Hints:
It contains seven helices and four strands. By secondary structure, the chain is of the alpha+beta class. The termini are far apart.
Amino acid sequence: MPTEQNKSLKGEFDSNAAKNLLLPNGRRIEDEGAPRPTPKQNCLTQPKRNIAPAPPKPKTSPADFVKKPTDAEKQLWRLSRDRRFNEFKFRRQYACGNYFLDFYCPDARLAVELDGSSHGFPGQQMKDVVRDEYLASQGIKVMRFWNNQLGKELDTIRETIWYELMERTGRTKEIAHYLRIPKKDSTHSL
């Protein structure tokens, strides 16, 4: 009795096996008379039914945060990018430990943080204190400003940041004739 292999060599084949063969267009021979599938029904374009879509990746890299800056961050970046702050270089979304700093000047070891309304809640304020203590242990001073403050007091904020940059880089002779602006509260500058 001929085996299956011998049958295929002789050109003989099982009619059930022929029904399962696929044509070049991806359809089975037995389906040739059936209506054509729409592109959405095509097996090549449809995802498998049993596989759940992958969950979105959490934001963990600076690039994830840089993509959508707040209006206040855009405004401050326009002022500080390309060494526009008296030749001081600033970096956006600088990674330091487990934290990302909104703006960071490596020469002065100064971080400028712009805070939204969520930073007014006690839970977030405690996180900010822990974060600031960690950054202080790394030798980084943190200046915090409210987002809405930037629109109202832009010149004052610029002068405050400039004064701190000059002071932290030892250029005190250049700022000796400027008066230091007093702070309003302990959490945020101005």
